[in-house]
Design goal:
Layout (H helix, E strand, L loop, with lengths): L1 E6 L2 E3 L5 E9 L3 E10 L6 E6 L5 E3 L7 E6 L4 E6 L8 E10 L5 E5 L3 E5 L2
Parallel strand pairs: 2-11
Antiparallel strand pairs: 1-3, 3-8, 4-5, 4-9, 5-6, 7-8, 9-10, 9-11
Length: about 120
């Protein structure tokens, strides 16, 4: 089994910064893509940012220029640096990872979610 453990959420004032981390542990042979999604109350879960194993990135238009996704392959960890936060960034943030097993099969896993609240 594989676990994704997130950390780094919290309460921050508008214009502030937070850094989220998500570490994969367990039966991990390698990891393909990793990403961050968010879900605000009453809304669907949307992609925030994604990163391939080679380091190519993709961002939602609403966070471009403010958020940066990165990964440490040696630590099986993905990060989301969030700067210039706005109240509309308030949501539960979820990480995901496409885990490859040693037998060549793969499976997508999700973290438990971490709350980010942007408010004065």
């Amino acid at each position: 089994q594989v676990q994704l453990v997130e950390s780094g959420g919290g309460l921050v004032q508008p214009g502030g910064s937070l850094r989220l981390s998500c570490a994969a542990s367990g039966n991990v042979f390698s990891i393909y893509g990793m990403g961050w999604y968010r879900q605000a109350p009453g809304k669907q879960r949307d992609l925030v940012a994604a990163i391939t194993s080679g380091g190519s990135t993709n961002y939602a238009d609403s966070v471009k220029g403010r958020f940066t996704i990165s990964r440490d392959n040696a630590k099986n960890t993905v990060y989301l640096q969030m700067n210039y936060l706005k109240p509309e960034d308030t949501a539960v943030y979820y990480c995901n990872a496409d885990i490859r097993y040693s037998d060549g099969t793969s499976e997508r896993y999700w973290g438990q979610g971490t709350q980010v609240t942007v408010s004065s």
